[in-house]
Known about the structure:
The structure holds 2 protein chains of 2 kinds.
Chain A: H1 25-29, E1 52-54, E2 56-57, H2 62-74, E3 80-84, H3 87-91, H4 114-120, E4 130-134, H5 140-154, E5 162-167, H6 182-198, E6 202-206, H7 210-214, H8 219-239, H9 245-248, E7 252-258, H10 262-282, E8 296-300, H11 312-326, E9 331-333, H12 346-361, H13 376-398, H14 402-407, H15 410-427, H16 456-469, H17 475-488, H18 498-506, H19 511-521
Parallel strand pairs in A: 1-9, 2-3, 3-4, 4-5, 5-6, 6-7, 7-8, 8-9
Helix pairs in contact in A: 2-4, 5-18, 8-10, 8-13, 10-11, 10-13, 11-12, 17-18, 17-19
Chain B: E1 8-12, H1 21-32, E2 36-41, H2 46-56, E3 60-65, H3 70-82, E4 89-94, H4 98-107, E5 111-113, H5 119-136
Parallel strand pairs in B: 1-2, 1-3, 3-4, 4-5
Helix pairs in contact in B: 2-3
Amino acid sequence: xxxxxxxxxxxxxxxxxxxxxxxxxxxxxxxxxxxxxxxxxxxxxxxxxxxxxxxxxxxxxxxxxxxxxxxxxxxxxxxxxxxxxxxxxxxxxxxxxxxxxxxxxxxxxxxxxxxxxxxxxxxxxxxxxxxxxxxxxxxxxxxxxxxxxxxxxxxxxxxxxxxxxxxxxxxxxxxxxxxxxxxxxxxxxxxxxxxxxxxxxxxxxxxxxxxxxxxxxxxxxxxxxxxxxxxxxxxxxxxxxxxxxxxxxxxxxxxxxxxxxxxxxxxxxxxxxxxxxxxxxxxxxxxxxxxxxxxxxxxxxxxxxxxxxxxxxxxxxxxxxxxxxxxxxxxxxxxxxxxxxxxxxxxxxxxxxxxxxxxxxxxxxxxxxxxxxxxxxxxxxxxxxxxxxxxxxxxxxxxxxxxxxxxxxxxxxxxxxxxxxxxxxxxxxxxxxxxxxxxxxxxxxxxxxxxxxxxxxxxxxxxxxxxxxxxxxxxxxxxxxxxxxxxxxxxxxxxxxxxxxxxxxxxxxxxxxxxxxxxxxxxxxxxxxxxxxxxxxxx
Amino acid sequence: xxxxxxxxxxxxxxxxxxxxxxxxxxxxxxxxxxxxxxxxxxxxxxxxxxxxxxxxxxxxxxxxxxxxxxxxxxxxxxxxxxxxxxxxxxxxxxxxxxxxxxxxxxxxxxxxxxxxxxxxxxxxxxxxxxxxxxxxxxxxxxxxxxxxxxxxx
Lengths: 539, 153
């Protein structure tokens, strides 16, 4: 069995002061709330603000997802809500598209129009909690437009809403794929980010290592990749959109995947805070403290939730939640014991949410900031992961930044090799996973948990509803707004499309229509799958 | 080890499923074991996969499935039959709950590799079963898309 970190650092049997001999408390750790923020951003930690405890929702129709969100609120989820898109919305086609028809509402929320968002949010406040909408990068502008449009309808100033509805264009390379081209996703991401900064809307974008790591990447690579995404995207907002770095740096947030290798996960997050603080100050000349503080939320690892003996996942989730709490996160959402089977059942969701409540209220871990600081082992591990990540980050810089590194295939190859390595390690039992390659039991002896079932007719019902609803919209208004969007989309990459997207969405243009129109203006097929024709006569 | 000598396998995702890691890992395992792998990637409709299977004259279609879109796998099985691809194996790997897994097997999927399946298990199954299928149908093997009447119903 291997006794090394996932990035190959051999762990010693014991750590002593010699392992942290060069550590300077002021310079390398800092008091909580002080640069370089290794110990976190708040002097009193969770005493002033508990992390947001939330669960991801989204399955079936918007009305069904609304019911789940209300249920989660009853279970004590108040700080924020989190909804994931289905594969149809993720690609920005519509449920009534021939390919959408089969998968609408299957793996998440079918949020392809403002109508769906209105149904999702029925009876749920837009303010007083963080609004997080996840999925792929392509629907970024749609999700943002929904929030702005619904705020207008409810008479709320959009600047009173906070949360995260945007998603980095890089996720397409890290397992959170959509069909839209990178240059389009990047352009729309920059539009959305510039729009929230200029309109003072406190919406963040996920620019995150979670997908990369859940796809097989190791801890050091994950740190390097998220930092290189931050550098690339913040750099573009400054250079191409004329934003102040101190504003641009408030757009991204990092969702970190926390697995079961307890100390290594904690070291990773501590190193990440320190590295970003130094990059922001030294490379980008940040003027504000906030710009040096990477906002970090935790997702306990879905990858580690096993198909076999699913009740074991409760133990894994508890260990990961404890680590997540100890790193000083802003928000946490848990994978659930049925993660390898389906979207969370009510039982599994309650179990995971209660796991967070137990960690928060029963363990005492939330009483003290960064409780492992000063541990010879944890400080040594923090230094190790930083050193390894720095090497990878330097390599990415040498290649010309993350976009160039992806163009050269460097990142994809790194991820593929690492995913293969992880599988081989498991196959050879170099890493043991209880119930999978250690202490297995025959399937017939395995305990069964309730699994949320899919109903094949649901997708068709969602598709049919949209097909019948589309002609009932104000067609003249819709056509005028779509034409305006088409005209604007031909004005070049730097022309911000968010205002015309919001107007189109307010006329109930769908994700397939909005993104299809922009695609057409850029010389692409209206339909990324080239199955349907553009329904509008654009000129 | 050249267990896969002469066996040609499509590895693909189906429908809008964007989870690629499992498929890529299995493609590597099969290549290392000497199989000829045609990796189709994401955004493949059942029709596109069947067309590729005919064009590439493969022995096995392997679907990596992590998006609960089992209806599309059923459609693939129907299309394979309609095109007379009777001696071609259709196997699926992924986190598929027991009930839909049983349903897919009853529908005609030959084998489902659940999470935890070892590389050796996959290689062994394909190297024995794909060749077996080849031997059992030597003359009429895959004469093209017009042979829907040769379906095994």
